[in-house]
């Protein structure tokens, strides 16, 4: 399924459907189950998780986070300008809310998203009022996120999806939520940071145990970006799910041999 239209050098993202569990490969579902158990049975505070992330980077254990095309495009991928999760962790600790309060209605949901954007960037960041695009590639091409006419409905649908969060599939719900948030791209700036904060919240991670995904996303470069684009453009979710799961295993100190490679 293709969720985009090409207009000259512009890739225009279109509406995309939420995935179903039976759409995923068997190894993806098994990795999800193992990662869910790991989260349930393991408890580290942010400081230890951050040390683990930095050790992964120091040891150059990038293989579990690489896409099959990473070797060809890594130098052309813009890495995230944010290489540290410290401001995210501070926000999460200070403003740790109840998920049910945030998703109670559309207004509370939008207000919390704007609060994240403003607190993280230290300036007023409202939900966008116009179309928004990526930084152009070397050839001048760029991706434009979903049209502003779809924004209100898409955020409302995302809020309803968050309300259906369950203990049985909490990790999968959190990953899908974060990816759909990035696809909607509701903020003028800070969407990645907001998505990671909301991902932790969907998982009901304790205030002092924030999962520092930022460091690994920055380290992985194309592994993260290409996996996101596969979901955005073609509704191919397996690699982005594996990316999130592998990040969590690395943060919790799992050996590389225990992880499932992205395809």
Structure classification: mainly alpha
Number of distinct beta strands: 3
- CATH domain class: Mainly Alpha
Which spans of ≥5 residues are poorly predicted at pLDDT below 50? none
Helix and strand sequence: EEHHHHHHEHHHHHH
Q: Work out the strand percent.
A: under 5%
- The outline comes out as globular
Span of the ends, CA to CA: 18 Å
Structure description:
By secondary structure, the chain is mainly alpha-helical. The chain has one domain: Fic-like fold, CATH 1.10.3290. It is built from twelve helices and three strands, in the order ββααααααβαααααα. α6 (106-121) packs across α9 and α7 packs antiparallel against α8. It is globular. The mean pLDDT is 90.
Summarize the structure.
Residues 108-246 form the Fido domain. It holds the Pfam family Fic. Helix 1 (26-41) runs parallel beside helix 12.
Give the SSE layout.
Blueprint: E1 4-7, E2 10-13, H1 26-41, H2 46-58, H3 70-73, H4 86-95, H5 99-102, H6 106-121, E3 142-144, H7 151-163, H8 170-184, H9 191-202, H10 213-220, H11 222-234, H12 238-251
Parallel strand pairs: 2-3
Antiparallel strand pairs: 1-2
Helix pairs in contact: 1-12, 2-10, 4-9, 6-9, 7-8, 8-9, 11-12
Domain Fido: 108-246
Organism: Serratia marcescens
Protein name: Fic family protein
Question: Which keywords apply here?
Answer:
12 helices; Fic family protein; 263 residues; globular; single chain; mainly alpha; Fido-like_dom_sf; Fic-like fold
């Amino acid at each position: 399924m293709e969720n985009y239209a090409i207009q000259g050098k512009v890739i225009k993202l279109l509406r995309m459907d939420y995935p179903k569990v039976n759409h995923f490969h068997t190894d993806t579902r098994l990795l999800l189950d193992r990662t869910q158990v790991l989260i349930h049975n393991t408890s580290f505070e942010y400081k230890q998780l951050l040390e683990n992330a930095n050790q992964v980077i120091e040891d150059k254990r990038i293989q579990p986070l690489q896409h099959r095309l990473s070797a060809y495009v890594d130098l052309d991928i813009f890495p995230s300008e944010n290489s540290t999760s410290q401001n995210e962790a501070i926000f999460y600790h200070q403003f740790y809310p109840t998920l049910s309060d945030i998703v109670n209605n559309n207004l509370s949901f939008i207000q919390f998203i704007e609060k994240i954007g403003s607190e993280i960037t230290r300036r007023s960041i409202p939900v966008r009022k116009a179309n928004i695009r990526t930084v152009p590639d070397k050839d001048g091409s760029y991706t434009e996120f979903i049209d502003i006419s779809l924004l209100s409905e898409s955020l409302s649908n995302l809020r309803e999806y968050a309300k259906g969060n369950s203990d049985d599939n909490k990790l999968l719900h959190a990953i899908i939520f974060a990816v759909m948030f990035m696809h909607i791209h509701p903020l003028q700036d800070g969407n990645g940071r907001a998505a990671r904060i909301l991902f932790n919240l969907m998982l009901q991670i304790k205030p002092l145990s924030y999962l520092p995904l930022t460091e690994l996303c920055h380290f992985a470069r194309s592994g993260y970006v290409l996996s996101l684009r596969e979901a955005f453009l073609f509704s191919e979710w397996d690699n982005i799910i594996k990316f999130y799961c592998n990040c969590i295993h690395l943060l919790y100190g799992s050996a590389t041999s225990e992880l499932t490679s992205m395809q």
